[in-house]
């Protein structure tokens, strides 16, 4: 059975209580993704509760050190941090990662609502003019006592496990307000990326300003290139970034459903936690002792790793490139992720 079919078998098996009819060959009912502000208050509460459900559920992957299902879903990002950033697979990996998180919310925690994104463009200059950071939802800034621990909201005192090298040490969710950074996803930067007509150049544009915007505006764990999915806000941020990529694809859909490129091996210094730079824990995490040298990362360090990417051992990302989700979902190729409306993702942004 191809991994493509396996994804579908899983989705089909899981869809009984969803208002989603899927079968092996198609995406028959596209799931809507909307701005957080457009969720109903019931959906907002259910969404938060589904993340809390993962946080309170025991780990299942069998990765040493994992305690909760939340540790499990963070793991594919932690273990591959060096091979899914600064590379062509950056956007496809994160697209599939959103679906992996959604899959766990729906199949293990009964979430049936729409998936939210954080409309960061709309939030420029008024980041806190929303209920998102309220006590009943994600909570707000970390403390100002130097630990930056998040102590309010539904994720107050959330305990995370992974450090930047894949080793394990309990630490708290942290945030440091830097709302000015949201302007990196302003109209000028979005237009600049949209003006690029090939993926080989465009991926890097999205990976720059618009990607940094939400990570930096929240900072703390969200500002750490390896550990950021520890913050539940990560998924709303990356969904917004994925929306920008999809909107770019839709500007010339027939061509851009097939347009892939970029390197498999990041430029020196561009990957998180890398020996020569990038995010090494972005302040807080560093201060909390995140080691600088990643040893647990899959890939990203040399040609010996490119073999299993499926790109014929080369340094150029192709549609054949394998995206690995640490057995939370089956391996797929980038080709299967290109169409947001296709069977694997089966979603649309509104
Ligand atoms: C797939 O789903 C669609 C819509 O529910 C249905 O019309 C079609 O017959 C299904 N195909 C198979 C092979 O089950
Ligand atoms: C879907 O795929 C599974 C696994 O390959 C297979 O057992 C099942 O019969 C397929 N269902 C349809 C409707 O094609
Ligand atoms: C989201 O909310 C805005 C403002 O309340 C509204 O204009 C827009 O139509 C809504 N979008 C959807 C998809 O419901
Ligand atoms: C976070 O801190 C900023 C700057 O002090 C403040 O404007 C904002 O209201 C705070 N947000 C929350 C949700 O407490
Ligand atoms: C979170 O931890 C702080 C101090 O570490 C404590 O004062 C507070 O009661 C805790 N809050 C929750 C909801 O556990
Ligand atoms: C964002 O705002 C900061 C501070 O006002 C400014 O220095 C920076 O140039 C702005 N960046 C963009 C992309 O507008
Ligand atoms: C891709 O776009 C960039 C920036 O617009 C341009 O410099 C480059 O020549 C283009 N590459 C190809 C292969 O079209
Ligand atoms: C792969 O591409 C990146 C970015 O262009 C480059 O920095 C790196 O040196 C290349 N690696 C190899 C092994 O060719
Ligand atoms: C790592 O972070 C620390 C603390 O923020 C900083 O002093 C150091 O220069 C950083 N190292 C690299 C290689 O970026
Ligand atoms: C993908 O793999 C297939 C089969 O191995 C091969 O025919 C095709 O040329 C590859 N495509 C790319 C873009 O590398
Ligand atoms: C999935 O991908 C990973 C990394 O590319 C590879 O190590 C693993 O063997 C693949 N698993 C399957 C079942 O193909
Ligand atoms: Cu990432």
Automatic annotation (TrEMBL):
<protein>
    <submittedName>
        <fullName>Di-copper centre-containing protein</fullName>
    </submittedName>
</protein>
<keyword id="KW-0479">Metal-binding</keyword>
<feature type="domain" description="Tyrosinase copper-binding">
    <location>
        <begin position="85"/>
        <end position="102"/>
    </location>
</feature>
<dbReference type="InterPro" id="IPR008922">
    <property type="entry name" value="Di-copper_centre_dom_sf"/>
</dbReference>
<dbReference type="Pfam" id="PF00264">
    <property type="entry name" value="Tyrosinase"/>
</dbReference>
<feature type="signal peptide">
    <location>
        <begin position="1"/>
        <end position="21"/>
    </location>
</feature>
<dbReference type="GO" id="GO:0016491">
    <property type="term" value="F:oxidoreductase activity"/>
</dbReference>
<keyword id="KW-0186">Copper</keyword>
<feature type="region of interest" description="Disordered">
    <location>
        <begin position="262"/>
        <end position="305"/>
    </location>
</feature>
<dbReference type="InterPro" id="IPR050316">
    <property type="entry name" value="Tyrosinase/Hemocyanin"/>
</dbReference>
<keyword id="KW-0732">Signal</keyword>
<dbReference type="InterPro" id="IPR002227">
    <property type="entry name" value="Tyrosinase_Cu-bd"/>
</dbReference>
<dbReference type="GO" id="GO:0046872">
    <property type="term" value="F:metal ion binding"/>
</dbReference>
<feature type="domain" description="Tyrosinase copper-binding">
    <location>
        <begin position="231"/>
        <end position="242"/>
    </location>
</feature>
<feature type="compositionally biased region" description="Gly residues">
    <location>
        <begin position="271"/>
        <end position="281"/>
    </location>
</feature>
